[in-house]
TrEMBL record, chains A, B:
Gene3D superfamilies for the chain: Thermophilic metalloprotease (M29)
A single BP term in Gene Ontology: proteolysis
The protein, known as: Aminopeptidase
GO molecular function: aminopeptidase activity; metal ion binding; metallopeptidase activity
Length: 365, 365
């Protein structure tokens, strides 16, 4: 076994999920994540945690959904009982074919998802963590050789998370104290307000309200957005390619939009409901181990020197008690590169210039 | 997909497990049983049953057990809650390496098994069915080419179960009405009593109290066994080869034993407890699709023209209300071939001679 798989498992169990003796752990194993699952099982045994593994297979899901009449039972009691009693759910992502469910009927997919809402919520109520085992299919999606992709995944995942958490704490403090954010890039001049909102120091650990490994971002819930933003990072949204999306905001709402590619998807997203016309998240990528875009949101949005904004639902963790943020059925992240000439300002002070934070080497004041 | 996989899945879901709309089904997927799992998911969707898949991996189990200190929690509540609410558990066997857990410490294995007794019982309380997807590892264990092994598995599994159930009903009637069984083979002259005991028509369906696919046997719970029996079918018991076991019974109890190979395993089994010195099962194989021994008890004991006897625990289904049969921590099947010169008699009447039942072509009265 690649030593990095074992290290990945240790990081997941120890740093991210904070597993302790007697914890009831569900290991949700994707088709291609077997090797990581073995390494995680070893870690769980070592800690005296309990282990139940589920099999997450897109091929099974497709076969089940394609043959089902679409009248799904609401969150079946046996599955709900499992997750309601679980302490942690560890999602080991590892697709063998990212297009496997491409032909599943959209209505069926939505009906299935809607019927399972209580199960999903029960899972989110646990100390859940989602992580990625490198598979050939993911390498292909990234346009990379498998060996290179493995290097990429482990460079992004096996970080000094404690050090990054400390660095991110600086940015969290600035955002928590700040009111007005000004974002400037080639094609972007955007103003957002974050007063009273709480920034999350997303350091790849449930101890930091962070449920992704890798993580490495600080995010908050903006409001009253105004101006123009261009997202130059290409993405796949609902199986369709999206490129150079431009959004224009007025009084916190999208009033105009276009895209060089995939504009129809963007239109669908924006027109979902009231909340999908507003931003739910302003996220600032701080993971310098993510050094390229690989068409996988788990990595892309964490990339150091990028900023992402999400249309739709805000995270509760960003909202003070009693305050409500953007509510929507969607949460769609879009990413922009903070390249040469870019600026991120909070209350008039430059926090990042040309993609370099003011506490980093090479920052030009 | 091999059409036979789809047919296997249909047989499992329809004939064996009798799955209906709304049933809460746990699909327990072995590492090598993915293809069958996809076909079963299709069948479950078609019937509107609910589906949760667990991942049964010997590699995970080994990693977990090897790193655990051996102090296991008794049947963790989250897993117990799942099985207590499930209607059916479908075990899709499909090992990728039958020796995977060979080096796991015996004490750890037993402690794990003991701690999980309530979970095991909850599973046995469902309409559970265990079946076998053909893998290369199982072909290897059988000493067969993979293509031949697949043919073997499907010949044994894709039977006309309704017809076999009818044929088996004849034997069940004979055994239910009978009192004294006399078994004669080369090396065997054994008398067993079955008065008051209930024979199970094991026709690969929960509707017949049968939880194996394939099945194809009629079994009951004998007592007061006397005489000698030789088991000429080689087996693997607890990872060790066993060959030509000879047992001598007096007043229902083993008084002498030997084996050409693996005698120490047989000794361990017999000396487990009081019940392990007695027989818990007399089973008569009636599946003519099983045409050879493949070192897999799921198939071997069902082979038409064989009889098996189990040391240890009797099945409740064979005991009239209020009567108790052999009780033991073990249930170890041993098999003898009903070859030329063999006889199976019930109350002095020959039911099978030279391996041919009296209702079959070629029977010599």
């Amino acid at each position: 076994m690649d030593d990095r798989i074992r290290e990945h498992a240790r990081t997941l169990v120890e740093w991210s999920a904070r597993i302790e003796a007697g914890d009831d752990v569900v290991l949700a194993v994707d088709e291609g994540a077997h090797d990581l699952a073995v390494a995680v099982a070893e870690q769980l045994g070592e800690r005296g945690a309990n282990l139940l593994s589920t099999y997450q297979s897109d091929e099974l899901t497709r076969a089940y959904l394609d043959s089902h009449d679409g009248e799904f039972e609401e969150s079946p009691a046996y599955e709900l009982a499992l997750y309601e009693r679980a302490d942690s759910v560890l999602f080991l992502k590892g697709s063998r074919n990212t297009a496997e469910t491409a032909d599943v009927d959209g209505d069926t997919r939505r009906a299935y998802s809607t019927a399972r809402q209580a199960i999903r919520e029960a899972r989110l109520d646990t100390d859940w963590v989602s992580t990625q085992h490198p598979t050939r299919a993911m390498a292909q999606q990234a346009g990379m050789a498998y060996a290179d992709y493995r290097d990429f995944v482990y460079d992004a995942t096996l970080r000094d998370w404690e050090a990054l958490a400390e660095e991110q704490a600086r940015l969290k403090e600035i955002l928590d104290d700040g009111d007005k954010v000004h974002l400037v890039t080639d094609g972007t001049d955007l103003t957002l307000f974050i007063g009273d909102r709480i920034a999350v120091n997303s350091a790849a650990s449930v101890a930091y309200d962070s449920h992704n490994l890798p993580s490495g971002e600080v995010f908050t819930a903006p409001y009253d957005t105004a101006g123009v933003v261009t997202f130059d990072v290409p993405m796949t949204i609902q199986g369709r390619r999206v490129k150079n999306v431009e959004l224009t905001f007025k009084d916190g709402v999208v009033v105009d939009w276009s895209a060089e590619q995939g504009e129809s998807v963007i239109t669908e997203v924006i027109e979902t409901d009231g909340g999908s016309r507003q931003l739910g998240e302003l996220g600032i990528g701080m993971n310098r181990g993510v050094d390229r875009i690989t068409d996988n949101i788990l990595f892309d949005e964490k990339m150091g020197g990028t900023v992402h904004l999400a249309l739709g639902r805000a995270y509760d963790a960003c909202l003070p008690e009693g305050q409500s943020g953007t509510d929507s059925a969607v949460h769609e992240d879009l990413i922009t590169t903070m390249g040469d000439g870019s600026r991120l300002e909070v209350d008039g002070e430059v926090v990042q210039r040309d993609g370099v934070f003011r506490w980093e080497d090479g920052f030009e004041a």
